[in-house]
Specification:
Rossmann fold, ADP-dependent NAD(P)H-hydrate dehydratase activity, elongated, single chain, binds potassium ion, binds ligand NAX, metal ion binding, alpha/beta, UDP-N-acetylmuramoyl-L-alanine:D-glutamate ligase, multifunctional enzyme, NAD
Length: about 475
């Protein structure tokens, strides 16, 4: 099941709603601390623990954790450079009832628990706090972050400071954007979420789950299964790669509109001549334009013709450098196309759309989706799928071997196949399926694959979603 990804404001609203319906902050803190202590106990197995507590409710959670671990028999030391400044944290410290040091004297401890700051961190740490945090992390065998590593900005994953690496991060109530976004996410090797009974949380982002993909119906034929057209350009290799991936991702028929001479496999139908001719086939369910397109005048013409054809499009690569919101929003009455930018292309889309580059990757992908009126796959190690209505899905971490030339062409090919095969015409679902299949193909391909091998693994990835 998908998990919500919740901003600090959305968390606060959920907390207020829970309080309004009769749950106290102390009760929420108790559930958070008890749940986190359970995870830490599994990691520490009775070893000595040092808990670093901050002044806010994150620190309050730390005192609750310290008390629960002590009750279980662990030797626990608490370090708190700042006194509690919330009622709930003061109560939690009183319940701990044991000694608290203001600084760390390097006394024993194998497991370090960072409960210095959570979602309330608003600026960088002071040099003393920064030094204390790193000393503690370096001098213990394992480190655990409570809710978030101290030094991380909850809503966008930015690092206020250099942070240590953590073996375990216990997210409280829900995942936050920093758990899934760069640059924070790679510092958190394992993230576990504790349910603190917040009830219904209003959220606009969630994690990506394995999709369920249906096999073709028993009466299917090549056209009813989805006809995907890949529009080629100056560099035919990229579009061939995309076409190969589209075949593996379930399309019944893949055509390549290209005038470039070159060996095209027999099971891909090449349609040469005027692009209008290829696009005029009413049986086409979706088309891909961008991989290997080039950015010259011919590329612009091919893009304009594709947009004018009124077919759902996947727009990738070079096409993302030359497209404008006027083309997607106003030249077409409707648009359910998918844009697949990497970071540089996302910045181009922002620039061409007159948008500022600000906020989290979630905010940026949403803004581009809204401005262009399309679904956006903002790809990278922290891929986001965004809809113009603001809904976002965050992909789980994928194999880093996917960072290979041609990997994006494969993703675009998968996306056009999923868009062509989708029965209800839902571009957002097609985009989510494509992101999952791409990562799954990477897992199957193993280490150091070339993009062609990745494309060949898409079929096996699809099989795992049937
Ligand atoms: N939202 C919820 O429903 C719940 C939240 N809980 C915990 O509460 C945390 C949020 O608590 P708070 O809002 O109190 O925030 P934090 O505890 O994260 O930090 C806020 C405190 O730190 C200070 N501060 C912020 N940046 C600082 C800096 N750079 N240097 C020094 N001081 C700094 C603030 O002035 C304030 O005193 C969550 O991360 C979670 O751990 C849990 O107790 C359970 C329930
Ligand atoms: K923390």
């Amino acid at each position: 099941m998908a998990d919500p990804v919740v901003t600090a404001d959305e968390m606060r609203a959920a907390e207020e709603a829970a309080i309004a319906s009769g749950t106290s902050v102390e009760e929420l803190m108790h559930r958070a601390g008890e749940g986190a202590a359970e995870w830490i106990w599994r990691l520490c197995g009775g070893r000595a623990v040092t808990v670093l507590c901050g002044p806010g409710n994150n620190g309050g959670d730390g005192y609750v954790i310290a008390r629960h671990l002590r009750q279980r028999g662990a030797s626990v030391s608490v370090v708190a450079p700042l006194a509690p400044d919330t009622d709930a944290a003061r109560a939690a410290r009183a319940d701990w009832g044991d000694s608290v040091s203001e600084s760390w004297d390097e006394a024993g401890g194998e497991v370090f628990v960072d409960a210095l700051f959570g979602t309330g961190l608003s600026r960088g740490l002071s040099p003393e706090h920064q030094q204390l945090l790193h000393r503690l992390a370096n001098r213990h065998v394992n480190s655990v972050a409570i809710d978030l590593p101290s030094g991380v900005s909850s809503d966008d994953g930015a690092l206020f400071d250099d942070i240590p690496s953590y073996d375990l991060t216990v997210a409280l109530g829900a995942l936050k954007p920093a758990h899934v976004l760069l640059p924070a996410a790679p510092h958190l090797s394992m993230v576990r979420c504790v349910d603190i009974g917040l009830g219904d949380i209003h959220y606009r982002a969630e994690t990506l789950d394995r999709p369920q993909i249906a096999a073709p119906k028993s009466d299917a034929h090549k056209y009813s299964r989805g006809l995907a057209l890949v529009v080629g350009g100056a560099m035919p290799g990229a579009s061939l790669l995309a076409a190969r991936a589209a075949q593996g991702a379930g399309a019944g028929f893949v055509q390549l509109a290209s005038n470039e001479a070159g060996a095209v496999p027999h099971d891909i139908v090449q349609i040469d001549g005027e692009l209008e001719h290829a696009l005029s086939d009413e049986r086409i369910d979706a088309a891909l334009i961008g991989p290997g397109l080039g950015r010259d005048q011919d590329a612009s013409h091919r893009l304009q013709r594709s947009l004018a054809a009124g077919i759902p499009l996947v727009i990738d690569g070079d096409a993302l450098r030359i497209i404008t919101p006027a083309a997607t929003r106003f030249e077409r009455e409707w648009d359910d196309s998918i844009l697949t930018p990497h970071e540089g292309e996302l910045a181009s889309l922002e620039e061409n759309g007159g948008l500022e580059k600000r906020g989290s990757k979630l905010d940026r992908a949403r803004r581009v989706a809204d401005t262009y009126g399309t679904i956006v796959i903002a790809k990278g190690p922290d891929t986001i799928i965004a809809s113009p209505d603001g809904h976002c899905v965050c992909a789980p971490r994928s194999p880093s071997w996917l960072s290979v030339a041609g990997s994006g062409d494969v993703l675009a090919g998968i996306a056009v196949a999923r868009r062509a095969t989708s029965e209800d015409g839902d571009a957002f679902d097609a985009a989510c399926e494509a992101v999952w299949l791409h990562a799954e193909a990477g897992r199957i391909a193993g280490a150091s694959f070339a993009a062609g091998e990745l494309a060949n693994c898409v079929r096996a990835a699809l099989e795992r979603c049937l």
